[in-house]
Design brief:
560 residues, mainly alpha, 26 helices, two-stranded antiparallel ribbon, 66% helix
């Protein structure tokens, strides 16, 4: 059997329930509702791990094409209109556009956003219930020719041309060079040789090591679990801190939890630090009609200060909650130096990897455009292709290395399927309907946009206890929650940045929150209770840092 029976039965049952039993709500087309049924079934199967996510995505693409749910008959693309009287100053604040100056960005108004992202019509409070006419968008289906079978399969495969999907896939292939050349391990041992005299210093060394390689390792599992974790285990073993001996409390528990809690923070700091981040960028752009389209440099700059503060605070919090028995580790620096001696002088492949790493950061940061003008700008995905091409031309990577990088090809497939389904849920009006329902429900509480947005944010973040995949969580919930926040009056750019951060902070929570978690938890250094307790506390600490330090930083940058 190619699937797990119980999770698959649950997923199929949910899909059939929505498709055949639950009536199509007023204001929702039949095709939109049926696509929701397929979408929910797919997400449920991913959560239950009924099949590998790539295999499930192939099935989902097939069902979308065969069922015709993206077709024009009965599911015409809605033209949504809604009366909007509020401006950015009175409703949702400025919304900078990627590449625009702060001054120009602050002229954006909510009225310029698409209907799904607009705040309600002028009223005493942005979150207060408006009249039925103002609160409910008018959906006017466009009359179009029926879709052909060729149109339907074209729809099902439409996201495969999305450049953000290829950015992540190619970046994962590039990150193979860090492992193959040994550069990733060298960076880790070098930091430990500098800061490893105390256990707390080793924690910071692990965090800095991951931060350095994060921009070019979109597989956070490969970064935290495949590169940093073996280094962490080697250090723990050198102090005879082993779970099988019952001595994990000496130093291993602290290092393992620090190893893991670093992962969500570094993932939040760069678009290319984890696979779902480009999906967040795409969903924000679609929700705002491309009024907000976060560039690589804009994301990195926005997350820089709160991320660094979080990396500074996190090892201290984990240390306080899980104090190791061994606090002084003078032998660790010598151990790391010994490992560096084993690695020897930097090899040709490592030097080339460093040069290409620097080139990628140079182009992703938009330096050519800043120095010579917009005509010299290089698209982030083009930059990734340049990096991979150079690695192939120099022989650092061979084509077989690229073919064997299964996670990259897997990501391209599942990312493409989920982006396609999320895109058509938006085009068919389902996201607008759901976000409107959220807005009406929360707006009726009379909390004001600040309280309403906080409620949405907490619900979105802590819903991750029910998810074993950040991709499934973001695909299933981000668009609706972001649009609902905008409709309640949240400033578009600030709301985009805090929701983007929350989409990574939620990884802190459980031992199944993201792919890195089971790798490190499975090594046995921390109990389930220790893991969950530390994860919850760190989620609160990280969220507070982004809400305070992040907000102040974004004001300094002129983003809000």
């Amino acid at each position: 059997m190619g699937f797990k029976r119980i999770p698959m039965l649950i997923a199929v049952a949910l899909g059939l329930l929505i498709w055949f039993v639950i009536p199509v709500p007023e204001g929702v087309t039949e095709n939109a509702w049926h696509l929701l049924a397929l979408f929910v079934a797919t997400i449920a199967a991913i959560i239950g791990k009924a099949m590998p996510i790539g295999a499930l995505s192939i099935v989902a693409i097939t069902l979308v094409a065969v069922s015709g749910v993206t077709g024009n008959e009965g599911a015409a693309k809605p033209a949504v209109t809604a009366p909007v009287a509020a401006t950015a100053a009175s409703a949702a604040g400025p919304a900078p556009v990627a590449g625009a100056s702060a001054a120009a960005a602050k002229t954006a108004t909510v009225a310029s956003l698409p209907a799904t992202a607009q705040a309600p019509a002028a009223s005493a409070s942005p979150a207060a219930p408006a009249s039925a006419a103002a609160a409910k968008p008018v959906v006017k289906p466009e009359a179009r020719k029926p879709s052909t079978p060729a149109d339907l399969i074209r729809d099902a495969l439409s996201a495969m041309s999305n450049s953000l999907i290829w950015l992540i896939g190619i970046s994962i292939m590039i990150s193979r060079g860090l492992i193959k050349t040994g550069l990733g391990a060298r960076i880790g041992y070098w930091f430990i040789s500098l800061f490893g005299k105390k256990t707390l210093g080793i924690g910071y060394a692990l965090a800095l090591s991951e931060l350095v390689i994060a921009p070019v390792t979109p597989s956070n599992t490969a970064r935290g679990g495949g590169i940093i974790h073996p280094i962490m285990r080697a250090i723990a073993d050198s102090f005879d801190s082993k779970p099988e001996n019952g001595t994990q409390g000496r130093i291993g528990r602290y290092l393992a939890l620090t190893n893991y809690q670093t992962n969500p923070i570094t993932s939040a700091m760069f678009i290319t630090a984890t696979a779902p981040n480009p999906l967040v960028v795409d969903l924000i752009a679609k929700a705002t009609g491309s009024q907000i389209h976060l560039s690589w440099s804009q994301w990195a700059l926005s997350m820089l200060l709160p991320g660094l503060v979080a990396l500074l605070v996190m090892p201290l919090v984990v240390y306080w909650m899980n104090k190791p028995e061994i606090t002084n580790t003078p032998n660790a620096t010598e151990f790391a130096r010994g490992k560096l001696r084993e690695l020897g002088a930097m090899q040709r492949g490592e030097k080339i990897m460093v040069a290409i790493f620097a080139l990628l950061l140079f182009l992703w940061a938009g330096v050519p455009a800043m120095l010579f003008g917009k005509q010299y700008a290089v698209d982030p995905t083009t930059t990734a292709f340049i990096g991979l091409s150079l690695l192939l031309l120099t022989g650092v990577l061979e084509w077989d290395d690229v073919l064997k990088e299964k996670s990259a090809w897997d990501t391209i497939i599942w990312f493409g399927a989920l982006v396609m389904m999320a895109d058509f849920l938006n085009k068919l009006g389902l996201v607008a309907w759901f976000s409107g329902s959220l807005k009406d429900g929360i707006g009726a509480l009379g909390l004001g946009w600040e309280g309403a947005s906080t409620l949405l944010l907490l619900a979105y973040l802590y819903a991750h206890y029910m998810f074993a995949s950040t991709t499934a969580h973001i695909t299933g919930m981000f668009a609706a929650f972001y649009a609902a926040g905008l409709a309640l009056g949240a400033p578009p750019m600030a709301w985009a940045l805090i929701m983007a951060a929350a989409s990574n902070i939620m990884m802190t929570l459980t031992h199944y929150a993201t792919g890195t978690a089971p790798v490190i938890f499975g090594s046995g250094y921390a109990t389930l209770g220790e893991w969950w307790r530390t994860g919850f506390v760190m989620s609160v600490v990280n969220l507070l840092i982004w809400l305070t330090v992040g907000t102040l930083w974004w004001k300094v940058l002129g983003f809000i």
